[in-house]
Structures are given as C-alpha cells and as structure tokens.
Amino acid sequence: MSVPSSSSASSSMFVFTCLLIIFLLTLHSSNCLAKPTNTTRQLSVDYYAKSCPQLEQLIGSITSQQFKESPVSGPATIRLFFHDCFVEGCDGSILVSSKPGSKMLAERDAQDNKDLRVEGFETISKAKALVESKCPGVVSCADILAIAARDFVHLAGGPYYQVKKGRWDGRISMASRVASNIPRSNSTIDELLKLFSSKGLTPNDLVVLSGAHTIGFAHCKNFVSRLYDYRGTKKPDPAIDPRLLKALKMSCPHYGGNNDIVAPFDVTTPFLFDHAYYSNLVAKLGLLATDQALYLDPRTKPLVQALAKDKQKFFQSFVVAMDKMGSIGVNRGGKQGENWKDRGMHMS
Q: What is the C-alpha separation between 137 and 329, in angstroms, rounded?
C-alpha cells in the first residue's frame, strides 16, 4: 500500500476544507452557528450566575405563557431537545434552517424531522429574543432549549430539576446525519438499545426517557401499520388492546386518511406528565410499536413494571436520565461551537 505524499495529503485537506466552507454557506443565517473552538466544556448549574443571573426567570416567563396559550408547545419542545441531543450532541443544531433553494439541508429539514411541530421552534425563538435583550451575546441556543424542555416537563406535572449549563452551539447542521441517529416508530428493541448505547445511554435510560411519551401525540403514519399489517402479517399487532385498536382504526384508515390526524401517546392522561405511560404498556395500550415493545422484551419489561407502580421512582429516574442525555457531546475538547460571543442571533 502506497503512502500519500505530504503535498497530496495537504491538497486533500484543502479540498475538504473548501467543501465544508461551501456547505456552511448554504445554511441560513443563525447565531446557533459559530466559529470553531478548542476548549473542553464542563457543564454546571451556575454557569451563567454572573453573566445572566436572571436567565431561568426570563425563559420561564416564555414557557409558562406558551404552555397556557398553546399546550402542545410542551411536548413539541421536549421532543426538539431529544432530536437535538441525539444528532451531533446537544448543540442547538436542530434550530438551524437551510438556506432557501439549497440542496444541502439542515437537520430540522430532514425527512425524519418533518413532524417536529413549529410550536417548539417558536418557543425557543421567543425565549432567545428575550434573553438576548437582557444578556446579549452570552447564552447559547442549546442551553435555552435544555431549560425550556425542563420547564415544560414541570408545567405538565412532572419533576422540577436543576439544568446544567454551558453548552456551546454547534457549527454544523446536516440533514444527512439525522436518519441514523434518532429512534424510529418501527425500530426494534435491539436497534434502540444499540442507538442509545452509541450515545452513552443504558437500557434503563431507554425505558425512562421513553416515559416522555406520557404527553404528546403521534401522526397516524407512525402507527398505522400496527392496525392493519403488522410486520407484513396483514393482521393487526396482537400486542394491542382490542378497544384501542378499534378506536385508532376509526381515526386512521389503512389508506387515504387525513395526514393531520394525531393520537395521544398516553391514552389515559394525555396532558399530564405522570407514570401512566407505563401502566398503559402493561395494559397493552401503548401507541407506537416501540412503546409496547418495552413491555414485551425481557430486558426492559421489569423496569416498565416497576415504573408503572411508582411515580416517584419514574420522576427521580427521569431527572437523572435527562441530565445524562443533556450532556451528550458537550464535554469533548475540540468540538466546534461557541456561546454567541462573536455574533448576533437570527433564527427562522
């Protein structure tokens, strides 16, 4: 095997750098993009104690207003946080828009992110604008998203917990990196466990974080195959309660249904952040195949059963798991990003 010359290697690096610059120029202007930095980040609860001491109150004023005016903002923002962290780490890159007309799309425009509701993006945009007016050039989009997600968990009846801060906004947002990094509604438990493991998360974290489905809704396309043709059998999923099956079929026909129709993940308390999600799985009332599979698989079933009986255990476990997920990709030296110190912000 021949070894490339130093001049050849330099040429290759130059070409790669040029291609990267061209891609970055296709992204819509946003101060969630930043210049590269080579500093290891360490998250802390009091990261902005001196630079923006009123940060959480500012964001809280927006999230509480959004929750009153548009309750769907809650699950929309929590889901946004999940999708951000699972692709390139918790760096706010999900908030970056593609440049109109460009063939190179940003994460939020990936096919797998098409169902992300606008209310989530609007919440972060409003919170950013308020924070920027009081603490210009200090707080990252990534941190605002993490805090807003926590706020909505609490507003919906879930636990309040301290959010560690100090994330830097990512420089790169590519739609092509989304599909292989987020769970799908038809993923197997093996696939989910492998994906979560790649993010430093355990099987227990999978079960606990799935509990965020205690609030929110899913479009018919994400579960319609369970109703009519489960895994190519031409029959419904046998692991779904007949009453739920009948109700879902009324809203979601096999073909030609309304693409805007949604169903709640938690059919018993869809607007309350509680542990009913797990009780539903025990009762065969899970909406997605991936939800119900958590109860069917012996590796995850025991924890589902335990959480179904103990709301406090779920809340305590959820706080720990959210902290772990919120730290994905943010403590690595050399990761490209910053905290808005050198540019203003615009998100569309």
A: 22
User: What pLDDT is recorded for position 91?
Assistant: 95
Q: 10: which 2 tokens?
A: 């330099």
Question: Taking a C-beta distance cutoff of 8 angstroms, is the pair 278, 308 a contact?
Answer: yes
Cβ atoms of 286 and 182 within 8 Å: the answer is no
Length of the chain: 348
Query: Pick the catalytic residue: 83, 213, 219, 275?
Result: 83
User: pLDDT, tens digit, for every residue of 77-124?
Assistant: 999 999 999 998 999 999 998 888 878 899 999 999 988 999 999 999
Confidence (pLDDT) at 270: 95
The one-character DSSP state at 222 is: G
In this predicted structure, what is the pLDDT of residue 32? 55
Catalytic residue list contains 83: yes
Question: Strand pairing partners for 338?
Answer: 169
With both helix axes pointing from N to C terminus, report the angle between 118-134 and 141-155 in degrees, rounded to the nearest 10.
Answer: 120
Question: Could you tell me if 124 and 77 are in contact, meaning their C-beta atoms sit under 8 angstroms apart?
Answer: yes
Query: Low-confidence residues of the chain, pLDDT below 70?
Result: 1-41, 331-348
Question: H helices of the chain, where?
Answer: 6-26, 55-69, 73-86, 118-134, 141-155, 189-198, 203-210, 224-228, 242-251, 276-282, 289-296, 301-309, 311-325
Cβ atoms of 347 and 124 closer than 8 Å? yes
